[in-house]
Amino acid sequence: MPRREESLFFTSLRLCGKKITMKTLQILGTGCPKCKKLAEQTEAAAKALGIEYELEKVTDINRIMSFGVAMTPALAVDGEVKVAGKIPSIDDLKTMIA
Q1: Is 16 a catalytic residue?
Q2: Boundaries of each Thioredoxin-like fold domain copy (predicted)?
């Protein structure tokens, strides 16, 4: 039998009979100012959409290269690269994340 905390967590993933899916948003970059800006913009877009998300900052160059990214910063949503080498507007980010 699951612990109470686990049960509450999994119960909270359903709302009004709909499954809530958490998005994994990955910022691929070295931590430069542009990478930080993309992280801020991505978080703002996710919050504006009202979605559940986890933001991960990937700074290891080998991991970044494993995504096939040649230019940073880059954004991957659920492991799929959506943009690289630029910082899109919040509206464009909302479209990429949704």
Answers
A1: no
A2: 24-97
